Amino acid sequence: MKLTKAERSWIMYDWANSAYSLVIVTAILPIYFKAVSSNAGISGVDSTVIWGYTSSAATLVISILAPFLGTIADYFGYKKKIFTLFALSGMITTFGLAIVSSQSWVALLVVYVLSHMGFQGANVFYDGFLVDVTSDERADKISAYGYGLGYIGSALLFVIVMILQVTKGFGYLNTIIVTQLSFVLTALWWTLFSVPFFKNVRQIHGVKRQSHSIRRSFTRLMTTIKDIRQYRLVALFLLAYFFYIDGVDTIFTMATAFGVDMGIDSNHLIIILLVVNLIAFPFTILYGWLSERFGTKALITVAIDVYVLICLCAMFMKTAFDFWILALLVGTSQGGIQALSRSYFAKIIPKDKANEFFGFYNIFGKFSAILGPIIFSTMTKLTGKSQFGIASLMILFIIGGLILLFAVRDSKNSRLNV
User: What is the secondary structure of 320-347 as a DSSP string?
Assistant: First the structure.
């Protein structure tokens, strides 16, 4: 499949920012935070709860800002600027993680929240650029290539970080310095590989700029809400997405803390996460190709079923081998469900209002990521076991899957093979 320059540059940003997801959110920072908080006298379970609530707080801020910023970004000339603002702020504060004192878990969380807001805020507009770089017919594969190459790109940096962690910088560095160096390398990776996106991706679809554009955005926001209600398939999909993607994001965010609570050492966790990323690459591409034959919605349903199985398995986990099984199952479907959800939505929304509707897609995704960590943290606190925290997320996948199952194609979208 020959890619255009815009498509390649858009995919490359997934390669760039996925390193933050793996190294910062999933692998290194949760372990580092648990070590720092432990030195401050905070128990393992309590530190997991704090991490979950903090992740929810960072997402909440972006969720509040996203509706308004999304409508502003629809105007030609604003979308790229807002994306750049969030991306650069995320890159800079990721550098800042290396500066924060290892003795202050509060300061570490504050800088993490700022970097996570930059990361998530940029992704709101990055996903929306899918309609600007490719066509409906190519959306499934382009979206899958983005997630797939993201797994490979992050895995490459992850290998470097893993070598530094295991060898302690080949014997020249202590654990704290190695961890801080990992933060610096992640920020550099994110910055350098984002250059093609900054240079080659342009906004194609949008609204003509008018006087008082920011003020008019409030009116357009209300209009968008009314328009969504006119499209049954779009509305039902957003509702389904709200629930099932919450479960996906929560399992991803809390995976490392969950592993630590099970007694798995940090080096073992690093190896597991690397293998998961390597598995995720081919399976994500496979989801993109199979969607051509069986339909995008059918493949999303398969991925939801896999996640229900993951939650069921979590209840009976006792050993590191059990954790391996769970991790491998996540690797088979995490990229596929995210990639196809993004492309599915791009195909069912009206083209002339694509940017507005994609803003709501990201709003639902961001707000959903608040509920899951709260459910996980609350159940973990009540039971004292992270296994039951993961298992409790099953309800999110069941609700999302049932809504998607009963979603009826709107007559205005009946031409689409989705």
Answer: HHHHHHHHHHHHHHHHHHHHHHHHHHHH
